[in-house]
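User: I'm new to structure prediction. If I give you an amino acid sequence, what do you actually give back? Let's try with this one:
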Amino acid sequence: MPLPRTATTFAPPVMEARRWLEGMTFTEDRPLINVSQAAPVDPPPEGLRRHIAETALTVAEAHLYGPVLGLPELRDEVATQFSAAYGGEIAAAQVAITSGCNQAFCAAIMSLCGEGDEVILPTPWYFNHKMWLDMLGVTTVPLATGRDLLPDPERAAALITDRTRAIVLVTPNNPGGVEYPAELVRAFFDMARARGIALIVDETYRDFDSRSGAPHDLFTDPDWHDTLIQLYSFSKAYRLTGHRVGAMITSAARLAEAEKFLDTVTICPNQLGQHAALWGMRNLSQWLAGERAEILDRRAAISDHFPMLEATGWKLMGVGAYFAYVEHPFDAPSDEVAQKLVQEAHVLTLPGTMFMPASDASGQRQMRIAFANVDRAGIQTLFERLKAVQI
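Assistant: Good question. You get back a string of structure tokens that encode the predicted 3D arrangement of the chain. For your 391 residues, that looks like this:
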């Protein structure tokens, strides 16, 4: 008897990690340092919260069904701002608003793939991407990366078959943190176009890229929409994780296909969240610049303090946006190490086994540190605890 679709994949990793906290007691002197999840825990700034409250009180239609592909004003704002940021031309009709960036990915895959098709994911991969492909019966083809965590277009090209429908890039990367060079993203785009497949570029963390200017030039191509599907999240930029607002930028024809899926699943994106995202885009650029500066300082703190861990055998493989990706020095596999870190160091992190196929043993030596909610002093404390651990 065939398995139900949900039984074809693994349990949500973040929820699994939270269960490691059951029965644990943490004190004020040694509180838990939670570096397991890449989401801000602070609420949105007060001005944005007030706007959400005023919208809830005064905009009656914010409580009703809205357009499946999102508020026209927000779609237009995304098109306008992203066109300026990337130096290209994006029309509002090429923008859909989704219930978070995860749903944008799901919609993109639904518009591309049938059961038995293939999608190439660089490893370490974002586990929710793998889970969705599993549940659809789409084969995930892992593309191993080197010590620099950057995927190779030529190695990717060698993996393409007549069932390949897309290659997925996440930049800045989750879980690796690395920022893909513009020329690398362009090489993947050119290769995908030549082979007649889609290039999905998940830019959830674009607001925290350390580089100035556009991170790639794909939107300057007048026919970008024949190959590119860009994904974005408002959650990280404006602390709107609970409101679930993301975006998908692609051809109008593909959005017409995605609309079938979106209408069936949520009917429309969260209305209050969309109004919040629109207000944020129009009013919070200076505030967001401050948020970016803080994240970049935390990134610098990772590099500044990591030598204390290097002395005990830890290795820093990648750092950027919300993440540091590291190699631990212990003989035990990373899933065991992660659970022991909760007990011995009061640190909750995710093991590399959650970001790798089971056949790739390198995941047993790797771990992801999500530092979005740990300031510079907290990062030093984190590394001091890790340095003292013996497993």
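You can read the tokens as a compact description of the fold. Here is one thing that stands out. The first helix runs from residue 13 to 19.
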